[in-house]
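[#protein-structures] MJ: dropping Type 2 lantibiotic biosynthesis protein LanM here for a structure pass
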Amino acid sequence: MKTNFAYATAIQERIPVFDKLYATEEMEDNLTKWLARKSLCTEEFFNFSLEEKGINRETFNLGIKSLTEKDVEHLEREVKEYTWYQKGQEILQEKEIATQHENIDFSYAIRPFLYYFKREIEKIEPQQFTISTIEPFLLHLGEELVQISAKTLVFDLHEQKRVSSFEGETPSERFVYYMKQRFEKQTSIVKFYEEYPVLFRLLTERVLFHIENYCLFVQGIEEVLPEFAYKFDCTPPYQLHELSLGAGDSHGKGKTVILFQLNDKKFVFKYKNLEIGERFNQFLSYLENQTGKQYYQIQRIYKKNFCIEEFVEKKECHNEEEVKNFYHRFGEYVALAYLLCGNDFHYENLVAHGEFPVLIDIETFIQNDTPLAQQNNPFAELSIRKYTSVLASGLLPMKFQENRIEPLVEGENKGLRLSAFDGKKQKLPYKALSLVEVNTDEVRFDYIEHEMEGANNIPVLNGEEVEAKEYNSEVIAGFSEICTYFLTHTLEVTVAMEKIFENVMVRNVIKTTQKYADMLGYGYHPQCMKNYIEREKLFENLWAFNYKNKTSILPEIKDLLVNDIPIFYNNTSSRDLITSDGEVLKNYYERTAIERVREVILNFDEQEYEYQKLRLELSLGIFELKEETIALGKNTEEVLHKVAETLLLRAKYDEKKELVTFEDFFYEPDETLDYTALNAEFYDGLSGIYLFTLYYVKYYPNEKMEELKNALEKTLFQLPKKTKKTQQLSVYHGKYSILYPLLQKYKLENKTEDLNFTEKLLENLEEEIGEKQEEDWLTGVSGFIQVLLDFYHLTKKELFLLKAEKLAEQLNRGKISLCGFSHGYAGVIYASYSLYLATGKAEYLSRVKNYLAKENQHFNGENWEDLRPEKNVRSQWCHGTNGIGLSRLWLLQNGFADNQVKEDFLHCLKDVLSFSRKDSGICHGNIGNYLFLKEVSESDFLPDELSEKVNEKMYSLLEEMFQKGVNIPSHNSQPMLGLMTGITGIGMGMLKAENKNIPSILTLA
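AK: finished. structure tokens for Type 2 lantibiotic biosynthesis protein LanM:
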């Protein structure tokens, strides 16, 4: 009888069959269609994949042909020889299928597989111990099989519902009706799995893996029982109970971590040789002997293919001193993880055992170099430096999974905190695809909010988990002590490290588990369960991954095809990579892991220590970027040249000097501070630096600065890839940060190509407007509107005005609730009045009047209130009278005759004149106030009686910078470079002091 099980065969299983039936040269062109399908796998990568598989294009073309009846007939003849088919047929003949079930859910569909598994493992009887129950093994398998089947079951339910009516009064009754119709009788079960033959194969293979693994588990326990007596003081009779499976991912054909209790002691069974754990214990003993420190060393029994470890319980601290000791040791582990090249120590891999942090999964010490191909650009170089720092360990706070495709949760920041330092219970920042309306005929997958449970990594004192951040100083102290020991005993430590860690197997994490898990999830699509080559087409995307050596991709795909998370190993004294099934990928790495660790230790000097300590403090959120007084020069030209010189000294180019960035401090959108390669941001990133460079080169021609200008242009002025996601519509942050610099470039150079590029950049603007769009000047559409209007006035092109008006629709949200220019009413007033001047539309004038009234409601007789929590600033561009005064001046200059506006303006002017700031930057410092006064002095609204005071104040602001230096956020006398808070902002102020044709940075005019 013909079935569909032929469709459960892989391409390379079909090829030998078709090779006997067809001449490859006469075969129609299937390959062109295959390659034309959407995929990340380019033809170049595809050709490489064929080389790795050992087949040619003609043969592959044969293997992907559409199946005829003759093909199916011949393939099924072959399929009947496969183990999965033969065992699968046994599974479908299970007599217990007819057993009645009271509660029916999706597990009803996979019960034949569970019955078979139960029957087979019951045959495996331990000789030297007893197992209290096999239920945990059944439960674990059932959960896994339902996960694999769920998308297909949901799809099939709705397909059946589409073609026939379900009986039942309620959604639950109709669900039971569907399940019984599809899965109650043996004939109906067979029919279902014939429709989804790949699912049938996959479920059968997983059952066979689990049976084999159960057998290995029992054999392993029996092999080492004699060692339990002296290693863990366990004596006969032996009983295994309190079993739990799935504490880790599935690797190597369904193998996972098993927790169990032998008599009265808890243990962990792992299907891998963890000799590295004993080597790490040896290194801890070495440190204890040399330094007098104490560490907790996990006791274990390890064999060639498995390991049994004591289960480390979370244990409460007795007093505050023990909590301090815990975090002191935690800092020591941070240092050790960096210096011994360890990674993947996230929150589940560390247990707070009283005063001891205990790493319970140490197979990822002594790691080799990253397998990723390094791009020849400065961003990649700085990124590698950052992510091979102390951050690589996973012990420290760091955002994970920031670029998910799933919808974000309302009000949540992007990124998970999964580190061993702070992995507490937390809401996922993105929604996860999950089953909803379960056990009803309305069951479906939808994106819903989830919480991630915490682990056992946070110490407990007096019954409560402590706040880790309160012990930051202990972490720093512990880190520094280990670093100091390595610095003062470099050669001795290197020799000890090489002796202890040579020639031992470690796990290599060459790609994050989440990336693999995502691919497995995509592979559960019903189409992939009907035809095996659809799964192969999906996983073909992996060939595009940016490995230096792509020979690891085929083993990855092999593991994924059997529903495993791929896993790799490396001998620390070898350059080879070893796959889950023991295949050796020769010379995968350019050096051995021991050689890498040796280099890290030998190159670890005071400078590197300071850099790693900086990374640690930034991660903990305790690094304070303090203002330092920086001498830039005694006059405007000296200051300008010093700013230019600083940029040239700190520029990071690629080899050809075509791309450039700077390593600098940078505030993330959530206001956390980082030290990283500057991106395109206008506020304090490359776009702002470019603006200074553009005008500096115009007035002070310089070959090296011209080179920097050209490199910045090549770096910045590239069209970003189109994305379906809504964008942050701001000209200070995000992809439109380059818009204002483009405007100024076009003004100066009048190149048509720049205007064309601008129009192309804005092409999809309307599609990118999202529901959460901000209205303000700095992070929202108000500043954006102003720049679009600038383009409109310069080019007379209506498209810029139309786009400005489209953005103006976002100003109706009423989200503004602060005073001031950058985030408050004043910025919206400025943009709205600009729109009114350009269009004459009353709605924009009405908004101006409305927001003037709202802002002035918060004038307390002395100043406009700072409505931010715990803030009280004045005389700043961002939140004070500087910015408010600019909005009022703009109204007055353009015909808005109003006594209150005049009064507001004069109050702002007098406040700026009476106040001096310590900070020198544009956003909230003296150069910002200088630029405000410069605007006022060049207007017709400077009262005669204040003219002299304005000039004196402008002079004194500059003179103070010349004589005393500028106060700029800095580290080790290296000032921040950015436009709004750094030294390029000082430079723009000096350019404006020299030449009134320099644009107004404060209002983007």
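MJ: nice. The radius of gyration is 34 Å.
AK: one more thing. The first strand starts at residue 129 and ends at 131.
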